[in-house]
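Hello,

Our lab assistant flagged a job as stuck in the queue for most of the afternoon. It eventually completed. Since we weren't sure the result was trustworthy after the delay, we are filing this so someone can double-check. Below is the sequence as submitted and the structure that was eventually returned. Let us know if re-running is recommended.
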Amino acid sequence: MTYTTSNTASAQLNAFQSLDVDQQLALFWFIYTEMGKSITPAAPGASTVSPTIAEGLFNQVKDLPHDEQLQLQRDLITHKNTLISREYGAIGDTTKLLFWYLLAQGMENGTVSPMPEDYKLSQEADALFTQIKGLEFNEQITLFRNIVAPMGVDPNNVEHDSETGL
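-- returned structure --
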């Protein structure tokens, strides 16, 4: 799969990926809460496959205890070879955006492990957040797609993992 990005978007993608896992998750949450009214509605309507796929994956997460929900999100970012990471890796990029949108909604309504109320972004994550807010809408969506696309594990490009049995 090939991704095309501008130099600015590449720098922002690299900056996002250089954050630790929890800061990446927190930044996603802050993006959703502050910018969700304009950005996230694009995800459900833009999905090129049935939203049922994203909803099915989301429902697997929703049914887990909160600590496992959080670990699963970390596993997606760190490419841990799990069944859900493989399922995620097999879906299209726009459906991945929809899945993260559903996770954010779940966090908001309490069905997914919520963000601690007093959580503060690191200085690096906050600076990146400011940059993202300054992007045009299409640039934001492209950046988010480029962020979520490589997460998870592509089941077609991974060898057998003796630790997980997958």
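-- support follow-up --
The delay was a queue issue, not a problem with the job. The result is valid. The first helix runs from residue 7 to 18. The two ends are 23 Å apart (CA to CA).
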